[in-house]
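User: ok so my PI wants both of these folded by tonight, can you help

Assistant: No problem, let's get them done. Here's the first:
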Amino acid sequence: MDKSAFKILDKSMPEDINFLDERDDFRFLVSVVLSAQTRDDYVNKVTPVLFSTWPDAASLAGADITALEEVLHPLGFYKSKARNVKALAAEVSRLGYIPGTIEELVKLPGVGRKTANCYIGHILGGGAVIVDTHFARVAKRLGYTDSDDPAKIEKDIRASFDEDELMRLSMTLNLHGRQTCHARKPECASCPVARHCPSFTQV
């Protein structure tokens, strides 16, 4: 596999790429759960209010669901998200810790593989493949996968890249998808990896 595009993007992107503001482990995990089908900047506006009211797992687990829904109302699917983060907080509070593997994390309420990978990569510094819509689109256009299925995409990426490349790849492709390789009108003329992209003449 030609990794030239990734190497070029890696050098052109900021050293640190973060879309969510929270860095505390529990607050970050909750933020990722809230970001599902919601723009990250909306989450970043809500979380200061959320965590000023319920600062940790124990307090969030005991939150009044109506009050929690009111805080999360600016986000999409706020009722289900309120239930999920309250249940997540209760389980983390019961355990006394946040699990450190994808297999354990996905057992938590509201946590899927994407959220688990986000936590592994951002908080634990592990090899993570964060398959969101931006990453999936760019990975497919670059020929790193031929699938639209998140599980298959993750498997393809893990098979082709080194463990220590995975998190950086996740973030660079994601940011490239947000900035340049858009879904409907990719900016191929200004793309730094156009000559390495097999989709260049197709999009």
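One down. Here's the second:
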Amino acid sequence: MNQELYLFNTLTHQKELFYPLKPPFVGLYVCGPTVYGEPHLGHARSAITFDIVFRYLKHLGYKVRYVRNITDVGHLESDADEGEDKIAKKARIEQLEPMEVAQFYTDAYHFAMDKLRVLRPSIEPRATGHIPEQIEMIEKILQNGFAYVVNGSVYFDIQAYKKKYSYGKLSGRTNIEENLAVSRELEGFQEKRHPEDFALWKKANPEHIMRWKSPWGEGFPGWHIECSAMSTKYLGSPFDIHGGGLDLIFPHHEAEIAQTNACECYDNPLNQAKYWLHCNMITVNGKKMGKSLGNFITLNEFFSGNHPMLSQAYSPTTIRFFILQAHYRSTLDFSNEALQASEKALIRLLQGIQKLDTIKYAGTSSFTASEIQQKLYQAMNDDLNTAKVIAELFHVIDKIHAVDLKQETLSQQEANSIKKLLTTWLEDILGIVPETRTNEQLEEVMQILIELRNEARAQKNYALSDTIRDKLQAVQITLRDTPEGTIWVNGKI
């Protein structure tokens, strides 16, 4: 843990040296999915971003407790206090129990994330499994005078809160008019003392399916209180890192901070977390990709290629590589062409690493593993800059090719060290692991196909040669002709 890692803290709007509250332990909480639909590329970006945080902190030697929740109740259609519960609406349309919907899409999310090699969190709590904790937190907020009850609903009292704490520090929205400008006319608006107030508990209408008993009558929790209750239950308050998408800063994360402070039952709870990390959006033609906008592509559609905006199927490894080629705080604009470029770049990167086994070694080396490692750490420690890490990896590949052209030199011992280093960074830290095929029979079959293709080319039967190549590509096995002969890339790319 001698590496100095700097993270951009949304709370302070600057990069700060990371130092956990109780080293070597790190508490990491990330807002997970609302499970009412198929996971899409936006879900993948958030999950992969914080997977990198998880992986890298563990690589540095920290003991990380990673908590990522599942929202299966309370997230209304407007992301505020308006409209129908997203999961309840889906259940009504499909004539299912809400928990059937939640379970189905939770399984779909896990399936897609596993394919993307996103590590499972240490704890994955569900909102419906923590109703008592949420009710207890609301009761404390009421006791402390920061909430009020109206007709069976409980609302957070922003004006009372502002008399003691600052509201809007995370988002920078400290002005009441500015907050109201981004709000719409909300359900229950007449019940609220002030338009800024938000729901901690909502009274369930007769037709509302998901409902629990509470001191205020049957109802369901507000979206914001869920994360406050679950994060403090498993990590305490304050904890080290709170993460999520940029679109969650206001009102969701701002509300979390207010709720936790309003409990006034934790040691130094101010701001809830020491570091707040937010990843930016996936865009399509400059607009956020999302279910509510109807411009999303599900991850299964990427994997199958079954979507009008896609010209082919893309493997999970390619999707992950595409996302990591941009810094997590920058926008990432989707296009089929960008994915094709990522696929080609990934093939080149993996082939370059394979080339370390076939280059001609020298007695001395003009570059070393330690030099490479220093540059990789420098890039990663600068706010987890995976884009720069990948650029450094390609710089190494250029040097490997230069060895082949006798413009650089490399000893076998140094080549082995470099291959081990690159594999560690690519697989363990970035999570770029080709789905390897290690079956010996498959290796033999591939050699037979390569020989048949070579014979076809020698006989100028290019149609057969191209057919062999294209059919292998269709099952995501890539043939590449090199000066040393034809090779096949070890896995799906």
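Residues 440-488 form one domain. The radius of gyration is 26 Å. Good luck tonight!
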